[in-house]
Amino acid sequence: MSVFSGMSRPMKAAGVVLVGVAIVAAVIGGITALSGGGSNEAGPSGTPTQPGTSGGPSSPPSTSSTATSPSTSSTASPTPPPPTTPPPGQPTSPGPGQPGGDQQASNKWVTVRVYNNSLIEHLAARAADDFRKAGWNVTEVKGYPYGTIPETTAYYRPGTDEEAAAKQLAQEFGFKAEPRFDGIKDASPGVIVIVTKEYGTNPKGS
């Protein structure tokens, strides 16, 4: 026999509604319970990862950039080459044709050879000493017995550095400068000064 037997129609309708509400409430309660349990279970499983991220030991900062900086700066400045010096006995003025320096000092780089064409002993050596004291590059001293030279003369090859050097040397010591003659035109390069007896009596450079 039904629980609604003996009830009036309105009462039966009200009872059905109550039963329906109870069923809906039970369903909602079950869903709430299930969803609440799921969130509680998910919390512990997700939270352990948080301490590991924030509380774990931090990795040390990279020092590669700071370690390589000193080596980079040290290799960026090459050591300058040591200054070069001329060999012993060489003039310190610029050579002929070199840029810079006084032209007269540059002329003194030209080789000078001194020949004696007199009967005065060691006259060429004396003249060579005078020239060296004035800064000239005398490299050879000897006699010249091949004929008679009228007067002390500096000989040069035209169109070479010897020309300017010979004229400067002749002006300094009071004799003349001329192009080489046939007897010495094929001699070694350089100004050739042939000294005669008048240089021995009144050498301007002494």
Describe the protein's architecture and organization.
The chain is an alpha/beta fold. The protein has 7 helices and 5 strands, in the order H-H-H-H-E-H-E-E-H-E-E-H. Strands 2-1-5-3-4 form a 5-stranded mixed β-sheet. Strand 1, helix 5 and strand 2 form a beta-alpha-beta unit. It is rod-shaped, with a radius of gyration of 58 Å. Residues 39-57, 63-74 and 86-101 have low confidence and may be disordered.
Annotation keywords:
206 residues; alpha/beta; 7 helices; 44% helix
Kindly report the spatial arrangement of strands forming the biggest sheet: 2-1-5-3-4
Structural class: alpha/beta
Q: What is the subunit organization of this protein?
A: single chain
Q: Report how far the terminal alpha carbons are from each other.
A: 164 Å
* Average pLDDT reading: 75
Helix content: 40-55%
Written as H for each helix and E for each strand, in order along the chain, the element string is HHHHEHEEHEEH
Poorly predicted runs of 5 or more residues: 39-57, 63-74, 86-101
* Beta-strand percentage range: 5-15%
Radius of gyration: 58 Å
Count of DSSP H/I helices: 7
Number of strands: 5
Overall 3D shape: rod-shaped
Main sheet properties? 5 strands, mixed
Give a summary of the structure in a few sentences:
By secondary structure, this protein is α/β, with parallel strands linked by helices.
What order do the helices and strands come in, and which of them pair?
Layout: H1 9-46, H2 49-55, H3 64-75, H4 103-107, E1 111-116, H5 123-133, E2 137-143, E3 153-156, H6 161-173, E4 176-179, E5 191-195, H7 197-201
Parallel strand pairs: 1-2, 1-5, 3-4
Antiparallel strand pairs: 3-5
